[in-house]
């Protein structure tokens, strides 16, 4: 995607997961690259997770946490630690680093300005070959997005940095999977590009062979690769979030290697980087 008309600044929404945050030097490089895109004239929004940090905080507090189908079962007690970690630690750190690089970053979560309204997730999982309902506690799905506040910030040259928590209409808070949160927000913002940062170069037909990197793929063809088992594991929620983003209004989605910040900086105008997904 190129910056053709400087008057209509394209929106890039980045999903930045906790796995690519553990190395401080790399984190700074990633933020430098995202900041450079902002300085080039793109509107930039960052949605972040922080799974490994939540895990550490819960371990230290001796609170058990279990993942069921990629969702962290979240008791009321665990939710306090989720919020403390995402908002108090990860979000404030990203904002400080971006500000230190000369940007004006604003830390938010789904609750702020009711950007995201959540609803309690009704979850079913396979137990002994049968689908059974399980209560995941305060795990939420995105019910609605109000992107107004984000547009306001972008128009004023701020970089919104958003934690993936949200509340329902009555104010009960929920822990939302970061990929799903980001996909919904990218869709509601009609982002020009939804960029998922991972630790591999993109989607590969054979995950152990980088020469099988898929550069461009239509969403329907991608779903076939998921259905036939070619793509598995941690990539699936990322693909699901790209599907949500594209179905809700994002123009294109891309999965790239966030651990190669040099690539990240070049994504504008270079469609050979990562896997580009089109509807
Ligand atoms: C996630 C939210 C954080 C997240 C969790 O508690 O880990 C649920 O699982 P990453 O680093 O992007 O994976 N929420 C419900 O998604 O972090």
Question: What bound compounds does this protein have?
Answer: N-acetyl-L-glutamyl 5-phosphate
Q: So, CATH architecture? A: 3-Layer(aba) Sandwich
Strand order in the largest sheet: 5-10-2-1-13-15-16-14
- What's the gyration radius in Å? 18 Å
- Which regions contain 5 or more consecutive residues with pLDDT less than 50? none
CATH topological fold name: Carbamate kinase
User: Counting H and I runs of at least 4 residues, what is the number of helices?
Assistant: 8
CATH superfamily: Acetylglutamate kinase-like
Oligomer: single chain
How many distinct folded domains?
1
- The overall average pLDDT, rounded, is 94
Gross morphology: globular
Number-wise, the strands total 16
Written as H for each helix and E for each strand, in order along the chain, the element string is EHEHEEHEEEEEHEEEHEEHHEHE
Fraction in beta strands: 25-35%
The level-1 CATH class: Alpha Beta
Main structural class: alpha/beta
Catalytic activity: N-acetyl-L-glutamate + ATP = N-acetyl-L-glutamyl 5-phosphate + ADP
Binding site for substrate: 50-51, 72, 175
Site (Transition state stabilizer): 15, 238
Subcellular location: Cytoplasm
């Amino acid at each position: 995607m190129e910056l053709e008309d400087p008057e209509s600044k394209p929106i890039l929404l980045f999903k930045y997961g906790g796995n690519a945050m553990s190395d401080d030097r790399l984190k700074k490089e990633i933020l430098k690259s995202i900041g450079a895109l902002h300085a080039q004239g793109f509107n930039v929004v960052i949605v972040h997770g922080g799974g490994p940090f939540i895990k550490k905080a819960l371990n230290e507090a001796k609170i058990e946490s279990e993942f069921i189908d990629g969702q962290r079962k979240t008791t009321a007690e665990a939710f306090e630690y989720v919020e403390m970690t995402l908002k108090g630690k990860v979000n404030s750190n990203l904002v400080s680093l971006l500000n230190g690089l000369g940007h004006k970053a604003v830390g938010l979560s789904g609750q702020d300005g009711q950007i995201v309204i959540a609803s309690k997730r009704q979850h079913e999982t396979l137990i002994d070959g049968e689908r059974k309902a399980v209560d995941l506690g305060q795990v939420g799905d995105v019910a609605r997005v109000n992107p107004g506040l984000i547009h306001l910030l972008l128009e004023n040259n701020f970089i919104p940095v958003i934690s993936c928590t949200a509340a329902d209409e009555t104010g009960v808070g929920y822990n939302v999977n970061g990929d799903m949160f980001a996909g919904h927000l990218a869709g509601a913002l009609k982002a020009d590009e939804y960029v998922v940062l991972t630790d591999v170069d993109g989607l590969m037909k054979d995950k152990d062979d980088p020469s099988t990197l898929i550069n461009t793929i239509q969403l329907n063809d991608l779903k076939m690769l998921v259905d036939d088992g070619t793509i598995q594991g941690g990539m699936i929620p990322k693909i699901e979030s790209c599907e949500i983003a594209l179905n809700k209004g994002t123009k294109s989605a891309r999965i790239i290697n966030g651990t190669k910040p040099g690539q990240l900086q070049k994504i504008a105008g270079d469609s050979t980087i990562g896997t580009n997904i089109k509807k």
